[in-house]
């Protein structure tokens, strides 16, 4: 078997390759400031440029033509005059015109101009980015600091049902009632401990009790005698129930999953065995 030798890439080369992607994204931001979507794309009737269009090689001929007309458009944005290149023009002549105008604007570079002939790469992105920087300055594009929207605190209104009694609220009211009592009222009196006998005759009870009114009062108060208990997420019982539910679902899906994994393991083992035998055959 033939294996490709590993290519050693220096840290500097890695940084340069990554920088091209970053510069391409910055270039698109500057093009949007120059309204290239309303002017450039509309005039040439083309789709918006992908953010990695001039970094990754896809269609060299198309990429070089788009680079040339975009560079010419940026040069005109810088106040210079350069006609739009045509697809059938000599690439060397087109690059020469773009480079001459770029140097006249004040762009400095030390790489061979033949690198621009590819229409893609770090050098192409650099030229377009520098032209865009000068075009932004020439058109007096003012960049204001972004103003984040003011965050308004949403007031959460808690609607309490009058027909329900909250245990926490009842406890707080009871504590407040006891704390408001004076010290004198909290003192015990021995006389108060003596039972007070009061004889109440059954006839008096019957006279003071109205059965219908008691039923009406019971019907009115009954809905309010509902007690709600808040769910506490820290309660270990709720976590235990969740764990039982998860374990049950895992056990249910384990059967089918285990069979599929065993079949996959069998297929992979068979394939590896075939590859090993083929390697032994070629290495004879």
Report on this structure.
Helix content is 58%, strand content 2%. It has 284 residues and is mainly alpha-helical. It has a domain at 11-138. Strands 1-2 form a two-stranded parallel sheet. It has helices at residues 11-33, 40-44, 60-77, 91-105, 122-138, 167-180, 183-186, 190-193, 202-208, 211-221, 236-282; strands at residues 164-166, 226-228. The chain is built from eleven helices and two strands. Helix 1 packs parallel to helix 5 (122-138), helix 3 (60-77) packs parallel to helix 4 (91-105) and helix 3 packs parallel to helix 5. This is Intraflagellar transport protein 57 homolog. It is found in: Cell projection, Cilium. Belongs to the IFT57 family.
């Amino acid at each position: 078997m033939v294996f490709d030798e590993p290519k050693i890439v220096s840290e500097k080369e890695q940084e340069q390759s990554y920088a091209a992607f970053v510069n391409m994204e910055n270039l698109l931001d500057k093009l949007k400031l120059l309204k290239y979507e309303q002017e450039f794309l509309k005039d040439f009737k083309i789709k918006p440029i992908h953010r990695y269009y001039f970094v990754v090689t896809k269609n060299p001929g198309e990429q070089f033509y788009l680079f040339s007309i975009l560079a010419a458009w940026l040069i005109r944005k810088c106040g210079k005059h350069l006609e739009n290149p045509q697809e059938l023009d000599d690439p060397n002549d087109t690059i020469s015109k773009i480079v001459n105008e770029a140097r006249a604007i004040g762009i400095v570079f030390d790489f061979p101009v033949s690198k621009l002939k590819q229409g893609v790469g770090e050098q192409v992105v650099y030229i377009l980015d520098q032209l865009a920087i000068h075009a932004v300055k020439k058109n007096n594009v003012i960049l204001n600091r972004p103003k984040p929207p003011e965050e308004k605190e949403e007031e959460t209104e808690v609607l309490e049902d009058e027909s329900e009694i909250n245990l926490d609220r009842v406890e707080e009211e009871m504590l407040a009632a006891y704390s408001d009592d004076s010290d004198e009222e909290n003192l015990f009196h021995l006389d108060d401990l003596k039972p007070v006998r009061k004889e109440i005759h059954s006839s008096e009870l019957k006279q003071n009790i109205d059965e219908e009114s008691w039923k009406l009062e019971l019907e009115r108060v009954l809905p309010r005698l509902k007690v709600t208990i808040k769910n506490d997420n820290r309660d270990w019982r709720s976590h235990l129930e969740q764990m039982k539910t998860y374990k049950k679902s895992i056990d249910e899906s384990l059967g089918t999953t285990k069979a599929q994994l065993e079949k996959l393991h069998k297929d992979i083992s068979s394939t590896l065995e075939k590859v090993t035998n083929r390697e032994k055959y070629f290495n004879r």
